[in-house]
Amino acid sequence: MTPPDPGLCRLCAFSTPVRSDRGSVFYRCEKSRSDPAFPKYPRLPVLQCPGYVPASAPPPPSR
Predict the structure, then answer these.
(1) Cα–Cα distance between 57 and 40 in angstroms, integer?
(2) In tens digits, what is the pLDDT along the chain, a chain of 63 residues?
């Protein structure tokens, strides 16, 4: 079975994939560490996100 597409999280600089012991993959949002507006584990697929930064681009400076 192919896992569902996580949307923007798959390509976001702030997203870290986490594999469970049972083989499920979750995407942790690292922006949640400094900004409570971002959930630690967002519902997938994420189609819109104000904190999205493409992984190939450098993350913006923290405030």
Answers:
(1) 21
(2) 666 789 999 999 999 999 999 988 999 999 999 999 999 999 999 999 999 999 986 656 665
Q: Beta-carbon neighbour count of residue 38 at 10 Å?
A: 16
Q: Which two tokens stand for residue 38?
A: 């971002």
CA-angle at 57, arms to 26 and 52, nearest 5°: 45
Based on the number of CB atoms within 10 Å of its own CB, is 46 exposed (0-12), middle (13-18) or buried (19 or more)? buried
Dist CA 25 CA 47 (whole Å): 18
- The residue written with tokens 């986490």 in the block is 18
Write out the two tokens for 41. 């584990």
Contacts of 54 (CB under 8 A, 6+ apart): 11, 12, 13
As given in the structure block, the two tokens for residue 23 are: 């083989």
